[in-house]
Specification:
With 844 residues, the chain is of the alpha/beta class.
């Protein structure tokens, strides 16, 4: 298509500059399919098979055949049933999680501006088809391969496709030779590349897999890298497995030395190995992250990359834009200071690329100001035709348009005061404007300067044009009512705040001071001042900076990279100039109505542009992190508890207190029904008053280890004491084993119920049930009935002896003793933590 004229292209694609008709577009969509690169997904059957390929499950299957070899058909049958049950549960949970993620991913499809039947419409990018006429503006992601038909100062970043970091200038009028390489096709817009500047119109000739980007994808084997959290879990699991393997080896040798049955020892060790390693943790984490992503969507935050949920809890620094995030973004013209008011209406209408319904909020404000005074901006644009356009430049902070006015070519310019000052020839007037500018900016107004001049020739460099600087226009954009509380909450949570904006320093400081970001002990700098510092100098002061004004994309990117050396950085942006910083940040966030280029690299998209939404999202991240810490505490504590119990029995030369099948059953009806509800526990309010914690360091810190081993020791003491007591009182061995087996189940239920909150259970006890009713209901309506079934109906498989009702008092007493022990320990921790974190508990 690059070797044909625009007219030939339209003829080949059977379309026109007015775009496709709706019926024709519908026909082509059905014929060619959606504009989507469909990557090969893992099949349902493969997902099901994968549930049985983990090393621990394979060990369990081997154990079942060992049991069969020894003639233990019941053990073989039971182990196989356990494997199948675990497999089906894991399969169901993974399929459900994937379907939820698919639903969320559909919400992040970018929108495209099209011409259909001569009318401008906006559709999801996957709905466009061959022959569609698309409009491309600065900040857009080109949705398909497009033959450009009209271009105006149109530059495209093609680094994602060609690796070339410098934007490529496009020219629709070029007709290139056949066999021109991809990187030299300057009349083509390629799918997935980002518009850096300008505006263009083009016709779609390649969609989905038939685009240049699609051809690359077909050559790739797509495999997602494990997330940081999953990699940390992997390291943790390997260390835990090594420790457990060492302990089990010692138990095995002691058992052999004591002359215990080799068959029982092998099955016992394998079952204990499977039970002790929290193999269900990855799916629990996935469920927690998916539930978190769904909850965040309900709070107007769309997660584009699931790992962003896990990182939110560690966020320590928020870099935010001003307009629309902290302020209302409902810009109204508050004040116009003009030295030559006769030309104001022309500047406002012609140095303006928006319409009254959509576009830049500043430009819309200018058009509304015109309408209120009886000017028709559409008529002005039709009367004074545009000859040349210099679209808004994020670095130069200006926009210029040359229009034919009464037989002359006049340039109309608006932009930052200090930029237009360089172009002005009326220096005496500039001094008067400067004084007015300072007064307007200090009152919190966002101020643009404007002017005009006569043009003889169109020049390459916009600064070579000379203008008469004629006035200032001040926009009122008040802070949102939620902004002050959001900043306050973030600071209480130990999160630093920095406003990075393209606005003037005076305006930025005024707004930042209103919401509590800027204080007298902090620094407020302009972008040019940042560039004077070396990296080492900037690193030494960066945490003292609360406002950066007149920031360029390079400034934002540099700040983020320096903060990243020691922080988890949240970067919020919406314009194409924010893209580098958002992409490099740990938690890049874009706005739903921002540029598609920025959204494409962001990990999260705000559906509602409000700083308080970000703070709520970080709160959710901390909740998920805290819940996963509870799950790990519960799983590891109970696993270590079983190991220490078994080890103690062997050291004390007591009979084997649990059979292999019983250990697997315990794993099924304790971990199986408690770990997943724990992962979706509601937030403990005090957690947001703590300083940010790097979650990977929170898995097994000293406090966590103290909790794990105190529980494991107490669990062992109680159950070994019960076992010894029963044997001394002439209980048959099978009966004693059945009672201890049931008491171990009750022990782990007690731990799960206490793990719901870090607070003591009887400190506002109703909150335990309000925070997580599912866990208590699961024990009551699933766990207890299953244990009764196990003892009385599956007694042959579980090596149980049906026990009289009176003997259930022992498991109940063990439950109460463990529950009370954990309660006493939590009251001790409660008093200790209240001294360390008084603010955390004062709110409750």
């Amino acid at each position: 298509m690059y070797d044909k004229t625009p007219e030939e292209i339209l003829s080949i694609l059977e379309t026109s500059l007015n775009g496709l008709g709706e019926e024709e577009a519908k026909y082509r969509f059905n014929k060619y399919g959606p504009n989507r690169i469909e990557l090969e997904e893992e099949g349902v059957f493969h997902i099901f098979l994968r549930q049985f390929t983990s090393p621990l499950i394979l060990i369990l299957i081997i154990a079942s055949f060992i049991a069969l070899h020894f003639g233990e058909i019941k053990d073989f049958t039971f182990i196989i049933v356990i494997v199948l049950v675990n497999g089906f549960v894991g399969f169901y949970q993974e399929i459900k999680a994937k379907s939820k993620l698919k639903e969320l991913s559909k919400l992040s499809v970018p929108k495209v501006e099209l011409i259909r039947n001569g009318k401008y419409v906006e559709l999801p990018a996957d709905m466009i088809t061959l022959g569609d006429m698309v409009i491309l503006r600065e900040g857009d992601i080109i949705p398909a391969d497009v033959r450009l038909l009209e271009t105006n100062n149109f530059l495209v970043d093609e680094s994602i496709l060609t690796g070339e970091s410098i934007p490529v200038e496009k020219d629709a009028q070029l007709v290139l030779p056949t066999e021109t390489p991809v990187y030299e096709r300057k009349n083509i817009g390629f799918a997935g590349t980002a518009v850096s500047r300008g505006i263009a119109k083009g016709v779609v000739y390649g969609i989905g897999i038939d685009t240049e980007m699609g051809k690359i994808y077909t050559k790739l084997k797509h495999k997602e890298r494990a997330t940081p959290l999953m990699r940390t879990i992997g390291r943790f699991s390997r260390r835990l497995l090594l420790t457990i393997g060492l302990l089990l080896s010692i138990i095995f040798l002691i058992g052999l030395f004591q002359g215990r049955s080799l068959e029982n020892l092998v099955l016992l060790i394998i079952a204990q190995l499977v039970s002790a390693v929290p193999e269900g943790l990855p799916i629990v984490i996935t469920i927690a992250l998916v539930v978190g992503a769904i909850t965040l969507y309900r709070k107007n935050v769309l997660i584009r990359q699931l790992p962003a949920v896990e990182a939110l809890g560690s966020a320590t620094f928020i870099c935010t834009d001003k307009t629309g995030t902290i302020t209302e973004n409902k810009l109204t013209v508050s004040q116009v200071f003009s030295l030559y008011p006769d030309m104001d209406h022309l500047v406002f209408a012609l140095a303006n690329d928006s319409d009254i319904e959509r576009g830049d909020p500043l430009e819309i404000g200018m058009l509304k100001w015109l309408e209120e005074r009886g000017f028709d901006y559409i008529s002005l644009r039709e009367e004074y035709k545009r000859v040349w356009l210099y679209p808004f430049d994020t670095k130069l902070k200006l926009m210029a348009s040359i229009n034919r006015v009464d037989g002359k070519d006049l340039i109309f310019v608006k932009g930052a005061f200090e930029i237009l000052e360089r172009m002005a020839v009326n220096k005496g007037d500039v001094e008067k404007l400067k004084e007015a500018y300072d007064n307007m900016a200090q009152s919190g107004l966002r101020v643009l300067a404007y002017g005009y001049g006569e043009v003889k020739d169109i020049l390459d460099n916009v600064f070579n044009f000379k203008i008469k600087m004629t006035g200032l226009i001040g926009f009122l954009d008040p802070p949102k009512s939620t902004a002050f509380e959001a900043v306050k909450a973030a600071k209480e949570a130990g999160i630093n705040m920095m406003m990075i904006t393209g606005d003037s320093l005076k305006t930025a400081k005024a707004v930042a001071q209103m919401v509590g970001i800027y204080q007298e002990d902090k620094l407020a700098l302009e972008g040019w001042e940042i560039s004077k510092y070396s990296d080492d100098e900037l690193r030494s002061i960066v945490k003292k900076i609360s406002v950066i004004a007149r920031a360029t994309p390079e400034d934002k990117y540099r700040i983020v990279k320096i903060l990243q050396e020691s922080e988890e950085v949240v970067m919020i942006g919406d314009g194409v100039n924010d893209m580098p910083a958002v992409k490099s940040a740990d938690l890049g966030i874009a706005m739903s109505k921002g540029s598609e280029a920025t959204k494409s690299v962001a990990k999260m998209v705000l559906l509602e542009r409000d700083l308080s939404v970000i703070v709520d999202a970080i709160r959710m991240g901390r909740r998920i992190s805290h819940n996963l810490r509870k799950v790990i505490l519960y799983l590891v504590s109970t696993s270590i508890g079983e190991l220490v119990l078994l080890f103690s029995a062997f050291v004390l030369s007591l009979p084997q207190p649990l059979y292999a099948t019983q250990i697997l059953w315990v794993n099924l009806i304790t971990d199986g029904i408690q770990d997943k509800p724990l992962a979706i526990t509601k937030e403990e309010r005090w957690i947001f008053s703590l300083k940010p914690i790097v979650f990977s360091n929170w898995f097994l810190d000293k406090f966590q280890l103290y909790r794990i081993f105190t529980f494991a020791i107490f669990m062992t003491v109680v159950n070994i004491s019960l076992f010894s007591y029963l044997l001394k009182n002439n209980y048959p061995l099978d009966t004693a084993v059945t009672i201890v087996f049931t008491s171990v189940v009750f022990t782990q239920w007690a731990h799960g119920m206490q793990a719901v909150r870090d607070y003591p259970f009887f400190y506002k006890p109703l909150e335990n049930f309000q925070m997580n009713p599912y866990l208590y209901l699961a024990v009551l309506f699933v766990g207890i009935p299953l244990q009764i079934v196990g003892v009385y109906l599956l007694s042959d498989f579980l090596h149980c002896e049906p026990i009289p009702i009176s003997d259930w008092k022992y498991p109940v007493l063990v439950f109460l003793s463990v529950f009370i022990f954990l309660e006493i320990r939590k009251w001790f921790e409660f008093k200790l933590i209240r001294r360390i974190y008084p603010r955390a508990y004062s709110k409750n």
